[in-house]
């Protein structure tokens, strides 16, 4: 679970840096896509952290954390990279050949949430005394 938190921290750092840089360089016509990529990236980076720190431990939980990490890279990372490198709308970028992964990143978001829900639903129930101690 530590690796998920480290990966999420790195993604958070990169998203903040991209957001700061993009605030000055993103073309107006790409602003909506830019904002969407950043929002989804931040939300799912936090979801990965939540998956890593949940009180129960399971393979489903681990898989959900990595699904969130992968989804941020495929969905947000590719869009952000493409927008930042485009400069001129319609100009080719190294990310053009990877844009087919953006919808797969969206599916990975959904899979992450499904796995996180299943991991919580199938986790052994904590006793009431465990709940009190955790607060």
Provide key terms for this protein:
single chain, 135 residues, elongated
Describe what you observe in this structure.
The two termini are 21 Å apart. By secondary structure, this protein is an all-alpha fold. The relative contact order is 0.16. Helix 1 (2-25) runs parallel beside helix 3 and helix 3 runs antiparallel to helix 4. It has helices at residues 2-25, 31-53, 59-86, 101-122, 128-134. The longest helix is centred in the middle third of the chain and has 28 residues, at 59-86.
What's this model, at a glance?
By secondary structure, the chain is mostly helical. Helices cover 77% and strands 0% of the residues. The chain has helices at 2-25, 31-53, 59-86, 101-122, 128-134.
The overall pLDDT average reads 88
Spatial shape = elongated
Instruction: Specify the biggest β-sheet.
Output: none
Distance between the termini: 21 Å
In angstroms, what is the radius of gyration?
Answer: 17 Å
Number-wise, the strands total: 0
The secondary-structure class comes to: mainly alpha
Low-confidence stretches: none
Number of helices: 5
| SS strand fraction | under 5%
The tally of domains stands at 1
Order of helices and strands: HHHHH
């Amino acid at each position: 679970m530590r690796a998920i938190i480290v990966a999420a921290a790195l993604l958070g750092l990169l998203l903040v840096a991209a957001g700061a840089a993009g605030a000055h360089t993103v073309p107006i016509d790409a602003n909506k896509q830019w904002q969407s990529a950043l929002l989804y990236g931040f939300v799912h980076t936090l979801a990965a952290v939540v998956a890593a720190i949940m009180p129960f431990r399971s393979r489903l939980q681990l898989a959900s954390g990595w699904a969130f990490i992968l989804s941020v890279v495929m969905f947000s990372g590719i869009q952000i990279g493409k927008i930042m490198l485009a400069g001129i709308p319609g100009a080719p970028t190294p990310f053009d050949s990877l844009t087919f992964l953006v919808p797969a990143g969206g599916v990975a978001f959904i899979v992450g949430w499904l796995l996180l829900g299943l991991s919580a639903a199938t986790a052994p129930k904590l006793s009431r005394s465990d709940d009190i101690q955790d607060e």
